[in-house]
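Any chance you'd type out a single protein's sequence alongside its tokenized fold?
>
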Amino acid sequence: MSIPKLGILLLLLAGAFAASQAQTGKTPRKQDFDVFGGYSYLYLNIVSSGGAESIPSGSGFNAGVDGRIYRPFSLVGQVSVFPTSGYSNAIGTTFVFGPRYSFPVPNSFKFRPFAGVLIGGSTYTASSHYVYGNNLSFAYDLQGGLDYRLTPRFAIRGTGAYVHSTLQSNAESGFAPSGYPRAQFDIDLVYRF
């Protein structure tokens, strides 16, 4: 099963789980579970190992779940996918999981800042008649951002992150050598269960 299909399956399962936990009483319940997804931009600015072509920055998408374990802390799982232009069938993926802290603000505020440290993995796959590469490595993601509440259930989330992975250079694929940092920027629609 491909990474994007796996991410969609996880989101659907998370939604079904959250719906099964819903209370039927009239007492209002605080939202304990978020599902989010949207546009993602990854900035690289790296020259390939052969020096022939720069590895391009890329637009992609991300999706994830955010479950509160103890206010204001939550656990977040996130998958980001970046089809890379310039290489045939090339896809970069980051999948990370970890804690997020949402700073307490009064209920009247529409903005809520947050910060998190997520760990997981990063992959890069490319295949064509002249490029072949398949790498999997450890990755971590230091992120911060703001949620803007639109309604009690919907919000817009802006996130900036420093992403670091240990992907190794591959002379044929020309992918980024180990240790190169990346900046990631996300704009997501959030639904709160």
Summary: The domain at 3-20+31-192 is CATH 2.40.160.20 (Porin).
